[in-house]
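In the laboratory, one determines a bound structure by crystallizing the protein with its ligand and collecting diffraction data. In a computational setting the workflow is compressed into a single prediction: the sequence and the ligand go in, and a structural description comes out. We illustrate the idea with adenosine-5'-triphosphate.
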Amino acid sequence: MAKHLLEVNNLTTSFKIDGEYFPAVDDVNMRIRENEVLALVGESGSGKSATAFSLMGLHSHARVSGEVLFQEQDLLKNNERKMNKIRGGNIAMIFQDPMTALNPLMKIKHQILETLTIHNTKRKSEREAYTIELLDRVGIPRPERVANAYPHELSGGMRQRVVIAIAIANRPKLLIADEPTTALDVTIQAQILDLIRELQDDLGSGVLLITHDLGVVAEMADRVAVMYAGQIVEMAPVKELFTNPQHPYTRSLLNSLPSEELLGGKLHVIQGVVPALNKMDRDGCRFAPRIPWIGPEAHEHKPELREIAPGHQVRCTCYKNFYLDNSIDQKDMERRVEAGQMDGKKGASVSNE
Ligand SMILES: Nc1ncnc2c1ncn2[C@@H]1O[C@H](COP(=O)(O)OP(=O)(O)OP(=O)(O)O)[C@@H](O)[C@H]1O
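The predicted complex, in structure-token form:
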């Protein structure tokens, strides 16, 4: 079995609210192997970005504890100088909005050259040629012209390709992609996902893919971690998660995907939102307030993630008592996962109404 590339143990990230710290990431454990895509999925406010930012040491005002083991170092113990060397080098990040990742005042080629220079790869003349090669590699037509352009002169899809070129410039071992296609048109989204998958295969990198979009998960992930209110509530290989989901939250997310049978019909949605950090009961099951028809006896006190099948973990026993009236046809789901065709891009969220 391949070695873990990244091992996250008991990661806890707390933000200060009215003078008190509250965890937004609460005792999270996860592993990513080489050449594996782990998707971290959950609705807005569940703690996905806070997790990614903590791994990269980008939370200067938060209190972060636990271990983030990467290449035999605990990244949380690194100073800023060491982290700068790792960021953009062995670990790269792709963010949702390419405009915030790029410097609007700098030509594209200088932004790529900068990352190559920081990480000291190749001689100057080689770096310049490699810049064009990278733009070509991410599918940018006429790369010499784009190299001399400023970010605002490019379309959103082209800008995201540039961000990806910068991300892969130093052949990272780990890629963290936080909603990499959310800001793009649907047709461009598919191209960018294909590109990330292709490059990841080439480099053999591990990927942490953060998304609220189950269509993206089905297309890209090998394993999935479902996050709710700062905790992972279910983790499983992708096919197992889509065909045999257990946690009520996972099942609600899946059930809000339009299936062929349900299209045009009514989708089952769970009311409510992720609770605010300073307003949640941290001792009980955090999803309990959104499934009030399930009695307190069905939930555990301080529920832990437990393995229910090889590689499949679930938090809290309430899943044993949870039913959905119009739950998704499993055969339809299996067929669509096999075909890599989850087209519910718009439906993959729990209702906020
Ligand atoms: N800098 C901060 N200070 C205080 N609270 C924060 C800060 N950043 C995030 N939070 C809170 O932490 C929780 C998790 O936020 P986070 O952005 O990680 O969620 P998310 O799952 O990534 O959502 P989204 O998809 O909307 O980005 C939320 O309650 C959010 O309000």
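The domain at 4-105+155-226 is CATH 3.40.50.300 (Rossmann fold). Keep in mind that any predicted model is a hypothesis to be tested, not a measurement.
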